[in-house]
């Protein structure tokens, strides 16, 4: 018989484990009972006096009846007690007095007579109905029956009566009748759980409980090793699998506080993708090569290959990375902000703030009257946002590659573009980076050729023209005007991405360059010597 669990004691009356200090805890009562007979050990005596013969208390389960203890014999009751008076005869002289047994333990505390020691709620198929002690569970290898438990436990509302579960990942040994390590334990065809969530103690029995699948990882079908607790998630939590058991749950700690589901190890924040709260550079929008560190570390640079981040590199002591030449040089040869070389040009750039041309997220520079005014730096965890012309916090408010917001310059050539087909709004791209956004004053439009805001001289262009599209006379081959009801309805442009479309003066629509005659395309046949750009849309 195993020892009682922590917080329980053995009841002499009920022959069962009970809670300490409960109303059926009889330890103090049993301990206070005096010896029933005190006499010499070498004298045989027969003593008959006037006393009440106590009824023998059988082994039984305990039933709670208010603050009383009721016991029921497992055999027919003994004959009715009688009171007699006889003389005491002994074969030798008595040297010690004989005391009568106390009646404390046999006082009738209830008038209710029970006819069975078994709770009528015990299922008929329960092995504890006919057996006692520890019994292996017939179907599940991590469970066993402890028939000494109370049948009145509230746990049986959730679990099979009298069943006890081994601690994860232990299994019950049917030969040794104890829980032990899962290795070399033969379950003999019984269900053998491997995941923590297959053990009932890890399941939720109440509301406001985090589901087991979120608290533990699954090792079923996985080889030995370490895995992220939540698959494809970047969190500090990970667990170790051994023989398909999650034998340990751990946390990554600084300076490598995040577990990478890609690398299967703890990594620093600069190795965590931005969409998962990290600082890892995004190579999806970059060509193969080396790039300046996005966090502004002047002696660091990173490598992209096949749109994948390949890692960081560090220049030798005393050198900084030159983002133009893609090599490490002395600071006097490197352009600002990391060196004292030639600054970026502000010629034909409208007044305002511009993001760093090398993609260093916290740096931006100022142009005024086509003159470079210097670099500025955002505070920690902030990055420059060209839309707002200011520093913003959090990757959710930052533009790719510094954040996760869409980059309008992705896959675009270096230059200026109209924003959302609006002739008064514009933006500048530099090697796929979004560096500036602007809006012309009311009544002006942005001239893509001069790169300046100008008076809307084309507002009367459609006064005598039929509805349709016409090539913009000052925007080369990209832009066009659309006339509607003799007014300039809008100024728009064709797709100007890499290998994008151009305006076809014959079809009055955007088309591929190979379908357009020079100078906007390179079609060499069926081209008239001259196409009047003001011909209406056919």
UniProtKB/TrEMBL annotation:
Species this chain originates from: Octopus bimaculoides
Any single GO CC term annotated in Swiss-Prot or TrEMBL for this entry: extracellular region
Region feature (Disordered): 63-102
SUPFAM superfamilies: Invertebrate chitin-binding proteins
UniProt keywords, alphabetically: Chitin-binding, Disulfide bond, Glycoprotein, Repeat, Signal
One GO molecular-function entry: chitin binding
InterPro entries: Chitin-bd_dom (IPR002557), Chitin-bd_dom_sf (IPR036508), Chitin_bind-dev_reg (IPR051940)
Cited Pfam families: CBM_14
Coiled coil: none
Keyword hit for Glycoprotein: yes
Aminoacyl-tRNA synthetase listed as a keyword: no
Stretches with biased composition (Low complexity): 81-102
Domain of life: Eukaryota
Protein name: Chitin-binding type-2 domain-containing protein
Domain Chitin-binding type-2: residue ranges: 125-189, 280-340, 343-404, 406-464
PANTHER family, alphabetized: CHITIN BINDING PERITROPHIN-A, CHITIN-BINDING TYPE-2 DOMAIN-CONTAINING PROTEIN-RELATED
